[in-house]
Specification:
- By secondary structure, the protein is mainly alpha-helical.
- The protein has a three-stranded antiparallel beta sheet with strand order 1-3-2.
- Helix 1 packs across helix 2.
- It is built from four helices and three strands; from the N terminus they run αβααββα.
- The chain has one domain: Orthogonal Bundle (Arc Repressor Mutant, subunit A), CATH 1.10.10.10.
- Helix content is 47%, strand content 8%.
- The termini are far apart.
- The protein is globular.
Amino acid sequence: MDTRRKPEKPDPIPLTHVGYYVLLALSGENRHGYGIIKDVADLTRGRVELEAGTLYAAIKRMKDEGLILEAPASPGADNRRRTYSISKAGRRALVAESQRLETMVELARAAHVLPPTRQARV
């Protein structure tokens, strides 16, 4: 009997900024790659523009980590495009990373690096 343990996958937290934005884009609905690129640009008001190569490398890694899944295409959708969805593990990772980032901002406020409150940009 082989008693060697399979190496565990590293914890995806903290997420890369690309990983965070991909999960954020998928948190509302399933999307194909171009849809993710457009949604991230919209969410960030153009401050983040993902390149296709960067996105697809992140998608491959995130699929391997179990954070996203390949989803069935919507009826009438272009079947040549792969559609992705966030997994339960991906949603947990997104929440954990959002909480980690929130804590960092709270620390920056406490250290007077940022003003006490800031109006959210919507």
